[in-house]
């Protein structure tokens, strides 16, 4: 890789901060230092992961990885406090990173402005404002063997599938552990590229499927966290001969590491909170007043005061020693956006402005949504709760149709909407093309995150979703949200489920132990369809176990 990261990727980052696009890099950095008041804090950067973070070259030698170039670019712009990649190690798996976290290992730091000193991992995380992670590929790669003489790969699909699922669960545990240590740190997770682009074309579809599965599992593990996914596969594939020049080595060239660093830079530009999130806070009081509190800005000049804005309108000014402001008489059921601008003795205003928003409550709480065909239905209260929570909806004719059988595609959409899942790859089913783009996107998300599986490339979208199928889908959402599968305490006491798979029986046992299903006359009736009313009851009852 080149010794210096391409400057333009981060020129735009700083331009975003300063809203000054006409200056070259060195002048922008100077503006940050002395051009006016600021709340921007230099980044304390920690890199975790495998050989890509450590920096192994395409010839297998230690060198600079993508964190080195990312850190150097930040440092060139005087936006780096310190960097440390001392916890990254070649060959590391997700299990290794999780173990380091659990053991709170101590290792020498390795980076800019911080090198050689021993530091415990939890302390390094606590000190960080930015963390990048690249881990998970080694978990899968150890189950892929390539004959060096023939170039023919051997895939242990059972082991690979198990490893990919495990990666997602361990990512969830890793990210939750990080945010327990430091709730404010911003985490960026690297997606992987195809490490074998020179293998014969016959093997590329299978490799693409495995890569999508790995990246999908990583993203599934990120659900419920604030971490940001950084895709890399398309960029590396654009010129793999340059970025992966050694067919016998899966590691990148310097140019390849630069591309990865650029991708992280793009995501930082778009989503990193350069101004700390707690620089300005807004809290509602009971009388319709917003109480604003902010931290002092810094400058080489004396700060003279602050201007307070509401929805882009200046509503007040205070002196430099005042860091609070109350905004009374807010309207009910309204969104308000606030910001604070600092001004120094030269009358230079801060370019970066901390913001906060509040939404006032409605004066009256609207009553539950009612449908004309549920007034005397046994599931009325569950349906109203499900609709109020946005889990299900009624029909345009004012009915809910509680006794209508739920289809596979309807069940899929409901679960995906409940979890807020977004896909990065198209749905692999050939029988859903006649559905809307939104439905196809929801099915794609369900497939990518392992909630539904098809049969011979088909989803069978209009088939009724059976009781056992719905149980399995809910069991998979539990694994997705919690980061680990539910292990039933005992087999479910139903005499008609013995012929079903271990996953199906465990799914039924989970719902039974949660008290969500009870069966009928000692039977679960696994092949029966699920009505919309039954689904509302199940989903409302189940949702509390995902919190």
Describe this structure in words.
This protein is of the alpha/beta class and 547 residues long. It has three domains: 8-271, SGNH hydrolase (Rossmann fold, 3-Layer(aba) Sandwich); 277-359, Immunoglobulin-like, CATH 2.60.40; 380-546, no CATH class. The chain has helices spanning 8-18, 25-34, 51-54, 66-76, 94-103, 121-127, 137-141, 157-181, 204-222, 233-237, 240-243, 254-271, 380-388, 408-419, 437-448, 467-482, 502-513, 532-543; strands spanning 43-49, 80-84, 106-108, 118-120, 130-134, 144-146, 153-155, 186-190, 228-230, 280-284, 290-294, 303-310, 313-319, 324-327, 335-344, 355-359. The strands form five sheets. Strands 2-1-5-8-9 form a five-stranded parallel β-sheet, with helices on both faces. The protein has a four-stranded antiparallel β-sheet with strand order 13-12-15-16, with no helix packed on it. Helix 14 (408-419) packs across helix 15, helix 14 packs parallel to helix 16 (467-482) and helix 16 (467-482) crosses helix 17. The longest helix is centred in the first third of the chain and has 25 residues, at 157-181. The protein is globular and about 80 Å long. The relative contact order is 0.09. Mean pLDDT is 86; it is low at 1-34.
Keywords:
alpha/beta, Immunoglobulin-like, 3 domains, 5-stranded parallel beta sheet, 4-stranded antiparallel beta sheet, 18 helices, 16 strands, globular, disordered N terminus
- What's the CATH superfamily of the largest domain, by name? SGNH hydrolase
Strand order of the largest sheet: 2-1-5-8-9
Computed Rg: 27 Å
- Would you identify the CATH architecture of the largest domain? 3-Layer(aba) Sandwich
Structural category is alpha/beta
Measured between the Cα atoms of the first and last residue, the distance is 44 Å
How much β-strand is present in the residues?
5-15%
Biggest sheet overview: 5 strands, parallel
Q: Might you state the CATH topology name of the largest domain?
A: Rossmann fold
CATH class of the largest domain: Alpha Beta
Shape call:
globular
- The helicity comes to 25-40%
Low-confidence stretches: 1-34
